[in-house]
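User: Predict the structure for this protein chain, please.
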Amino acid sequence: MSIEQITQATDELGGGRARFDIDADLRVYLAKTDWYVIRELETGTPVPEEIKANRERVRAMIETPLPLPF
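Assistant: Here is the predicted structure, written as structure tokens:
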């Protein structure tokens, strides 16, 4: 799923998506690409520039804080 698809303002039914839901999906994108960063740290194989740029862009787009783990 592309970043543009994640940040769409409407859901499958045409209704508005909550900012929290959009941010949750953006965090999933970061989690799915974490392995690139780990690979770079462990083996020295660089993270592709496109992934680096997308991760930076996604981090800047997240507006809501993580919920507390209670």
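The mean pLDDT is 91.
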